[in-house]
Amino acid sequence: MNPHLDSLQPYPFQRLRQLMAGAVPADKPHINLSIGEPKHPTPDVIKQALVNSLGGLAVYPATLGSPELRQACADWMQRRYGLQLDAEKEILPVNGSREALFAFVQTVIDSQQAVKPVVLSPNPFYQIYEGAALLAGAEPFYVNCTADTAFQPDWASVPESVWARTQLVFVCSPGNPTGAVMSLEDWKKLFELSERYGFVIASDECYSEIHFGQPPLGGLEAASKLGRSFERLVMFTSLSKRSNAPGMRSGFVAGDAALLAKFMLYRTYQGGAMSPTIQAASVAAWQDETHVEENRAAYIAKFQAVTPILAEVLEVALPDASFYLWAKVPGGDDAAFARALFEQEHITVLPGSFLARTAHGINPGSGYIRIALVATLAECQAAAERIVRFVKTTNQ
Hints:
Largest sheet: 7 strands, mixed
Helix content: 40-55%
Number of strands: 12
Number of helices: 14
Strand order of the largest sheet: 2-8-7-6-5-3-4
CATH class of the largest domain: Alpha Beta
Strand content: 5-15%
Shape: globular
CATH architecture of the largest domain: 3-Layer(aba) Sandwich
CATH superfamily of the largest domain: Type I PLP-dependent aspartate aminotransferase-like (Major domain)
Structural class: alpha/beta
């Protein structure tokens, strides 16, 4: 067996199941705000395109994807970011950002070096970053994101000796779980570090279309604004959150053509080609913005309804983007808070400490909960009211 498998830690939702083992919830309707799974209906334009393309099930897919899909992705990049990308060389369709993020690390990391390679990750983080690094034979290094740094990675805290071994840096903007968005100055600092140390930047941007009217800055967009090429820079995006289609497993990677050529080679052997049926539905999704605007409006309505209610008892504010609230809980024990909330109000949230690692003396997720506003507006509002009642009752 691959010995690196022994390095993997339990996934956050496995830990959540363990936390809730034996808990008996109150006899109230369950509201699950723990998992970041979109619950809005998948748009009809996507479903119809899927049905119309069922003939694609009889065809082996090309790993590079169809010219129509790559062009649809490139056209979206032009509309969204004002970037002119080469659809043949700078776009690669993938089966959702999760598998692509994992596979990309296996492509990039050179574990044959004399010193062990390092993969830098924000902390808290999406656990795929860590698992991909470990299984590639690299050492994860966690860069804390705290309120003191506006939930951005504290790059200044990384020692020179670590930078010297760093081959890949993950960024997530808008961030999971905090919703923080990198500014142009943030990107400038990271690009300067990449120039100095030669590492690749993998920018996870799957929440980019859930915002409050100000589209978040993207990594390739930042590079263009700063007069930088896409060298050693790729971005990952997906239809899961943007289009409420997580079951399609559809997204794309864009950026450095040389990196994507190697990634394409890896995926040819890995078997990462997207079904032609899914490709056709993806074209329809990337070409339509009406459903994205409606989706965004639905999330805005939930944030506007829920945030002021929760602010009565929790330290919480609107994120820059994404569909999460990152709330600081009274008492500081996020796991105990989550379990008691489940028992007394039958509401499930995710302890923030499960999304982070103890690094440099702290677990930056400790004392926080992640609230995913994926349920209906009525359910989210009811959950907020029940959380307020729970906190007030607990603190009496």
